[in-house]
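For consistency, the fold was encoded as tokens, which produced the following:
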Amino acid sequence: MTYVITEPCIDVKDTACVDVCPVDCIHPTSDSDDFENHNQLFIDPIECIDCGVCEPECPVEAIFIDEDVPEEWEHFTQLNADYFQ
């Protein structure tokens, strides 16, 4: 189980979730060289400890536990994983 960032994050990239993540598994961060190269943030499915502190911090409600991702956004689960490969 992990958390997934979905469509509402596109072109928003609010980093409140990054600021509260205790294991720094959300990328790219605003100070990363590739921050502007991506239109959304991503959660590393291996590093995520499923603590859930990121979910309520998201102002656009883009973060879901993987099993609760809405059907129309299920492909974001793979997009998040692919970012880290």
About this structure: The helical segments are 16-20, 75-83.
